Amino acid sequence: MPVTIRDVAKRLGLSVTTVSRALAGYDDVADATRERVIQTAEDMGYTPSHAARQLRRKRTDTIGLIFPTLGNRFSDPFFSEFMAGVGDQASQNNYDLLVSVAPPGEDERNAYQRWVQSRRVDGFILVRIRRTDWRIQYLSENKFPFMSFGRSQTVNGAPHIGVDGKSGMLELTRHMIEMGHRRIAFIGASQELTLSRDRMEGYLSGLKEAGITPDPDLVLVAQLTRSTGHASALQLLQLQDPPTAIIGINDLTALGAMRAAQELGLNIGRELAIAGFDGTEAGEHATPPLTTVAQPVYQIGSEACATLIDLINNGQHESVQQLVKPTLIIRRSTQPDGVNQPEEEGTNHQASSP
Predict the structure, then answer these.
(1) Which in 53, 58, 166, 182 has the greatest CB count within 10 A?
(2) Does residue 76 sit in the same domain as residue 53?
(3) SS (HEC) of 318-341
(4) 297 CB burial (10 A radius; 0-12, 13-18, 19+)
């Protein structure tokens, strides 16, 4: 049987309340008594109840992460890597990570309200940030700690860590143009998402810089998934004047486009260039390896979690807003002569601001 606080109190002839307050460090217990209690507890092998300690502190030592999705994002390599970074950092700080999925809308609102009102978690990490994001508004109004992966226009100064998607996509578009492409398609996502708007701006800036007029037929809206990337690419490649290059808003979209091109018998890299954004292992090990704009997803997850824990413990601090520069990694999916290069070969370019 595990030793309880009652056992310690009985051994010392003290009340349970006195022993509890002595172990909790309250200053209304004499120093000599506190030392006796601590020493006896150690000698008896008493371990304080984690649940009781949390209750006294009004804390759960838990970070919340709710993926706003209709589908299974746990199979998305981007989210898997991000969640690993968050989880490892939480564990290092003796925090638990509570993960759930809720489709955008009423179900998502209910989930946040339940977790906040019940104090199920001490703070949230937010993903897939929207330009106008009710989550940020709600948590800010309730003074509930949060850290978002991406910025929003909802609350000025809201804590976030983001990736410079505009400069990354601009660099990728420049690469396509340098490879001789003029018909460059873009498979994006809803413009309500901050990442979508930023990456679209980078793509359009690259075209404008080269004097290329955007063709609305070459810009499609998908859902950041492999299946919608596949469907969108088939639509693009069946145009009377199809693109010679396709940029996916993320790696999954680009991988779906690669499958569509292969089904049509196209040589990727020579007959059609395809690239993505994220830098996932799935893109690195694709056939051919995928050119991409890589962001340090694991490190971002880890940093977001560390900053959130700091906010929970200490409140606001100066480094609460960060912007990370992504890196362009050129691989065989955009190289005309790529079939003759080894698969592991790639060229890295730090994305620069326009």
Answers:
(1) 166
(2) no
(3) CCCEEEECCEEEECHHHCCCHHHC
(4) buried
Helix 31-44 to helix 16-24 angle, to the nearest 10 degrees? 90
Q: Is 4 exposed, middle or buried (0-12, 13-18, 19+ CB in 10 A)?
A: middle
Of 144-148, 166-170, 340-344, the range with the lowest mean pLDDT is 340-344
**Coil, strand or helix: which one is 86?**
helix
Q: What is the pLDDT of residues 293-310, one digit of tens each?
A: 999 999 999 999 999 999
Q: What's the number of domains the chain is made of? A: 3
- Closest listed residue to residue 354, CA positions, set 198, 221, 162: 198
Residue type, 185: A
SS3 49: coil
> Whose CA is closest to 189, among 205, 204, 200, 203?
200
Range of the domain at 102: 62-163+298-324
pLDDT for 46: 83
Please state the pTM of the whole predicted model.
0.79
Place of tokens 């330009």: 131
319 and 213 in one domain? Answer: no
SS3 71: coil
